[in-house]
Amino acid sequence: MDLSNARVVITGGAGLIGSHLATSLAGDVSHVRVADDLSKGDRERVPDTAEFVKADVTDRDDVSEVITPDIDIVFHLAALTDTNFDDDRRLFEENTGMTHTLLERMRDVDVTQLAFTSSSTVYGEAPMPTPEDHAPLEPISVYGASKLADEGLLSTYAHSYGFTIRTFRFANIVGPHQRGNVIPDFIEKLQADPTTLEILGDGRQEKSYMHVTDCVDAIRHVIEQASGDYATYNLGTSSTTSVTDIADIVADEIGVTPSYAFTGGDRGWTGDVPKMRLSIAKLSQLGWEPSLSSDESVQRAATDLVDEIAPEFNG
To answer: Distance between CA 138 and CA 111 in Å, rounded?
Structure first.
């Protein structure tokens, strides 16, 4: 799809990926409309050149305001994203409900292009590197189950109602403005006590980390280059970083040498996949490669986030 003259909607556009995507697209497309309920997003991250609508994507009236017949493509990033969210039923129902509500409205007004942010959690504990055609998909968290259910809805609309769908299964995306992830968590803990750092699990959990700028660039490349009614792409890096390595990177960035206190076990929480690396061969075949390795992505994110969260360590 040629995005140059497109009118786009980004749900969840005030969050980490959405705000960077909005900034990237704002200077290149005809119009960007950002929809976000600001439950986790920040209005200040949305570029001034984008239209902002405060909207709850689970609400049909709000969705009707956001999705209008003049829209060319919807980037659906809105979701409850906490893999250890304490209300499993709400997480599942809201994530699948907002996707279905969005699809219903799009069908009503004949908007048929949609890009969806799924997750590596749909694979569960799969052999690595995990390709897009790995089966069976066996998520081990309710969050992963909700994303897999979303993918089922999207497949139905692509094959039965003439939609063109691009689904992105993300590795761990990191970067500026992020909160509630391992990197900002470590920074905040060391800000409170630079002598000791609690690490969930045994620290051997090892996953692929991708910087948000690479993530946005990859999304745009797929939208512009991929073909077919329904296509799924893994987004990540070909390397991994352990939790203990992340702790080392963050501590070094801050300039402290804490002792590590591990909570024990092979995973950080119920539903945590301790080892994850996605195959990005399909993305490479489309002509795109990440500019940063997993370690480099973590390092760049740590530098930016220390500046944001604990600037006193750089003083």
So the answer is: 31
